[in-house]
Amino acid sequence: MIETRGLRKSFISRQGRDKKTVEAVRGVDLEVAEGEIFGFLGPNGAGKTTTLRMLATLIEPDGGTATIAGADLLADPGEVRRRIGYVAQGGSTWDDSTAREELVLQARLYGIGKADALRRAERVLEGFQLSEYADRKCKTYSGGQRRRVDIALGIIHEPKVVFLDEPTTGLDPQSRAHMWDEIRRLRAEGMTVFITTHYLDEADALCDRISIMDNGEIVASGTPAGLKREISGDVVRVGLPVDAVAAAAQALTSYKLETYEDNVRLYVEDGAVAIPQILRALDAASVPLGTIELHRPSLDDVFLTKTGRSLREN
Amino acid sequence: MKLLRDTSLIFNRQMQLLLRNPVWIFVGVFQPVMYLLLFAPLLKPALQVNSNAEAYEIFVPGLLVLLAIFGGLFQGFGLIAELRAGVIERSRVTPVSRLALLLGRSLRDVVSLIAQAVIITLLALVFDLRVFLPNLLLAYLMLALISLMTSAVSYGVALVVKSEDALAPLMNTVAQPVLLLSGILLPLTFAPGWLQGIADWNPFSWAVNGTRALFRGDLGSADVWQGLLIMAVLAVAAVAWAAREFARSVR
Ligand SMILES: Nc1ncnc2c1ncn2[C@@H]1O[C@H](COP(=O)(O)OP(=O)(O)OP(=O)(O)O)[C@@H](O)[C@H]1O
Ligand SMILES: [Mg+2]
User: Fold this and answer.
1) Interface ipTM
2) Closest ligand 1 atom to the C-alpha of A12?
3) What is the count of structural domains for chain B?
């Protein structure tokens, strides 16, 4: 459904007199299958939005090729536009318009007739539980309601592929869960959904497949479960008083380890064998111990092993 | 035809939003009326003419051209607000005609300018201004071309600079010499030769002369067709350029 080869984009940014080239996207190869929810996971500035904007025909790539829903991005951007929907990270509604007006206009911009546009607006308003507010101005909506309008605007013309740039950022946990359901519903209706996110749990729970992006490059791709399986071994998380973290790290230097505010994580081959050793080492250094847990690697651990940094720190 | 359909979609939306905001209508009417009531009485002695009617014949066309220029040049601010809200990006991912994105907006500006012009003309009639209807319609055509051009320029510049902070000084810097060198508020008849020489290079000065000729009832004057032609050419150029800016990548 989406295939890209070597997609690149750099920006020239001016800071006073200095010109700096930012390589936002440095050669992205992707394959997204029909009917899946595909996720782009990466920290701020990874190049997720830039990639999406290129695929949505909003900015021209510096290099590389892409086919989206059977249309060639460079040769026929007009056809790509007809086949996709795009929801920007920053939203797209006008304060003084109502959701219904926005939806009808958007449908009509895609060439849909007036009566049909009204019908479609009615249907998506119901689908996204917006009927109650449909005729109120957008500026009166809550963040979550407004985000739902954004998504509804992106799919009103029933595209084959829809790009959602951070659909759940800024939503409370309950609205996020709702949004996930809506996104799954889009997949059930046959759409291919391409989302970006910097939430680990979102990538894990919602996406069929993900690519992890960092610094303009894809560092890993696969199903969330598959990616985690690639990291052999277990993670031992040792909870500690805040002031004991440094001492613990010192006592455990022989392990591959990450320190956090009130815990350290150790990557070990076999947790059951490692735990007694860890306890002994901490005891020998008289580090006060809080809790100890053993768990399978998370996507954050995947990111960590690929980049040497943690996503959580961002 | 797709262009027509898309243009009318954008135009209708913009019109609807404009009418929803009565403050604009009030400001748009109030300001010119103030000019007419408070500024015009100074004119008869200043212009050394014999009657109010004669003074208005010179002043009203100048005022209308002034409104067309300024009304147009400052439309870019609204577009920057739309850029910020993501509305423009949302339109640009659809297959809508890029020319329509511009024309729909500029035509709204033309329509609201003409509405203002009609109100002012009607008021001036009360003050003894007399103008022949076909001439008046041609004068409105001139105003429409001016405002089409200036609003397109303003939209194009807004898409390039993308911030109010840059747009405001830019437009002011353009508007000021244009205003001073066009003989808009007072005719340049009494200006020294060098000033008139510069004014000849100001396209708006031709537009003002043409509009004045029409209000004077001098349809045959060369000023009329020259003014219309210059404004038409510039309007087409401005629209073509600004539509290209709509098509280009913006962020
Ligand atoms: N128009 C631009 N001009 C200059 N630099 C830009 C521009 N757009 C993006 N960048 C830079 O490109 C890099 C990638 O940005 P991008 O918006 O794609 O990141 P992102 O992964 O979407 O991040 P976030 O999670 O914060 O949305 C950043 O360093 C950003 O500053
Ligand atoms: Mg982004």
Assistant:
1) 0.85
2) 4
3) 1
